[in-house]
Design brief:
About 35% of the residues lie in helices and about 15% in strands. The protein is an alpha/beta fold. It has a single domain, classed as UDP N-Acetylglucosamine Acyltransferase, domain 1, CATH 2.160.10. The protein starts with 8 loop residues before the first helix and ends with a helix.
Length: about 210
């Protein structure tokens, strides 16, 4: 997750606010983002909790994490790693587990879960690579890797690795495209393929062909 240039903590906060300004046409000012955006506050508070966690301080990391959840509705374990410019849009109901890694420029919508599937004290949560988009209610479970530039559809349940640039939808999640996220279309969920609808259309076409024969 190392970038070419390193920024101090307050500089990272400033660039995150600018990223929110870019992706949210409803915002009116940077002051509004600093004071009123739960996803922004959740990222900042988590960085504090994560630093306490890395310092192996007892109790304090979880206390900050609990305060974060109370204030924002976003539950992030202090051990999770969040990169720069991670946007949690609205944010309510987001859950990010202890060993999850979220790299830079990831866009996460409300209700997303990055959960574990093991009780062992190992890497058991997902790694989300740079520039991914996780749709509302998506569940990404286990020690899997979602490759750079992937898009996960709303309410999908992903339990296997996704290659870079792929689009994953459904329960369980299936790869339906490898075209990547086109810049400027991150919010256009209507452009996601619907494999169920496509299959039904195929079956309908076959039935019509059989009726004509």
């Amino acid at each position: 997750m190392n970038e070419d240039r390193e920024l101090g903590f307050f500089a990272q906060i400033a660039e995150l606010a600018c990223a929110y300004r870019k992706y949210d046409p409803a915002t009116n000012s940077l002051v509004e983002i600093y004071l009123l955006y739960p996803g922004f506050k959740a990222w900042v508070l988590h960085q504090v909790a994560h630093r306490f966690h890395r310092a192996k301080l007892p109790f304090l990391p979880r206390l900050v994490s609990e305060l974060n959840r109370f204030l924002t509705g976003i539950d992030i374990h202090p051990g999770a790693t969040l990169g720069r410019r991670v946007i949690m849009d609205h944010g309510m109901g987001i859950v990010i587990g202890e060993t999850a890694i979220v790299e830079e420029d990831v866009l996460i919508y409300q209700g997303v879960t990055l959960g574990g599937t093991s009780l062992e004290r190992t890497k058991r949560h997902p790694t989300i690579k740079r520039k991914c988009v996780l749709g509302s209610g998506a569940k990404v479970l286990g020690n899997i890797i979602i490759g750079e530039g992937c898009r996960v559809g709303s309410n999908s349940v992903v339990v296997k690795d996704a290659p870079p640039g792929s689009t994953v939808v459904g329960v369980p999640g299936r790869i339906v495209s490898q075209a990547g996220v086109v810049q400027g279309q991150e919010l256009e969920h209507g452009r996601l393929p619907d494999p169920v609808q496509a299959r039904l259309q195929q079956l309908e076409a076959r039935l019509e062909a059989l009726e004509r024969s």
